[in-house]
Amino acid sequence: MTTHSDDVTHLAECSACRQRYAANVVPFDPAARRNREREFTSVAAKLERERDESSDVVARYLRDTPTDEWSRLAEMPDLRNNAALEQMSEEVRRRLDRQSTEALAIANVATSISETLPPGAYPSIVLAQLRSTAWRDRANALRYAARYDEALQSIERAESIVQQFVTLPYDHAVVQLVKGMILAQIGRLDEAYVVLSECRNIFREHHDTRRFQQAALAEANALYEATKYTEARRVYEDLLREPLDVEYQARIHNNLGYCATQLGDFVQANIHFSEAIAKFTDLGFTDEIPRTERGAGLVFIARGQIATGLGHLENARRAFRINGMVEEAALCALNIAAVLVERGDDSDARSIIQTIADELAAAGLDKNAIAAVVRLRDAIDMDDATVETVRTVHALIEVLRDSVHESAN
Amino acid sequence: MAPEAIHDPPPVLPPVLPPLPPDGGVDESVFARIYGEHCDLLVSLAVRKFQVPAVDAEALAHEVFLSYLRHADEVRDLRHWLIGAICNASRYYWRKRGRHIEQLDTEAAAERADPRSRDVLTDLPNSIAIAEVLDAMPPRWAHILRLRYFEGYSIKEIAEQENVTSKYMQKLVAKCLQRAQEIFNGLRARKDK
Known about the structure:
The complex is a heterodimer of chains A (409) and B (193). Chain A is mostly helical.
């Protein structure tokens, strides 16, 4: 029989072992223990009270104050507490995607408040947490605004705050998650996946499933970008062993399909892409199915698996047409045409280009797009078309599609 | 080209809130119960598993409880979270003091069989082989592998200790592993003869 010292999972789950483990082992000062317990409960009560008394206070101030005056909010006594800072963090998170300037303005208010709270307002460890959260949110807002140097400075400030306490590895991991994403976005991939791997392990140890998944996904992404496909695949597979919802499983199968294709494991790649499509089909995500097929088709073709790739692209094109996504179907058809032109199959290429022109015209889409497709058909007729010509038309239709969608929003 | 869905955010799960009194008011007894139910366990883990001095263990456990308060809304499994927190806090405690070894808890270890002992027939030869491989490696390389894989140090922390960049340390660890594999293959070939 060997012995062990680290089966903490068992201790967490077995009441009898837990009691035995903790019983009569540690001598302690009962009075000091009572004082600590009292401090804990009073801090807990204070935080809860503030949350109860401050509900929606931040939303109200933001609504009632012109945006260009938000910086003044740092002086409002109602907002100078933990509950308001928590609400600000939530307001930043909500705005990251579409209103990153507002997110940054709120994060600036939060950092300003957190740095000027009096030392006695909360225990020093709680102050460190709320300060690091404010700096982390600021870093995230800067990241979304593509201001990466400043984002890195902010996240390093957050990191230096939590590192002052040995009891904040979890908060440190939350900071590292953002830091890893910033590093990945600026192309410092070798550092990114190291940082993300570390925080992933901390989240796993804390049984924080949501952040574990975020960290694992970001790590696998960084590994993939760094062309470390074997390592990326291992992280995705690790993730797939977790209890995940079906959508998440579908996306990971899709990503595993990419890894397997890059690794030349085309059988596995097909299995993963098929799994992804089956799960998207079960979910009724009709837009995701052709996108998965198109991604699979392109990556297979890039790896020289032309017949398999074309099969996926045909499936994608058909599904886009069924869904009424004419531009997407046209783009897919242009991907197919590029392959046909490259291998000198001009007759099929011409036929598919003519179909695109007809479909775009029937849908009443942009005249410039249709003209470009017609010119491409004429170039094929004159034996003057190259893969580059096809790609130029593809890029043009993409730009036109995006500008239409942007103006619609 | 990166996979399309690779940047998609993970699903946001509904938070599990800590138990609160039905009227929504503040009930300190809930927090007193959390403290009372877990404090002995956390202190015991710090002391027995990591050999943190009892006085410091109490302080660490207390800080873990305080740090929990700001995460209370998002912690879904309180006991696992607290245990994860005290284990990491104990490791960081020793690292800050320049001690690298996670200590064995001999007393508790004797009480219960290690589930891993089921594989002892395969694990033991592996352990012996690892020791032989490390002995045959240059001391600095063996030290780096010990820090990384036996003591759980991060690449960044080892890099700081060795006064090199994280990127270089990442490469060095990969090189050490490769060398370890070569030594292992050599040892095995010699034994097979």
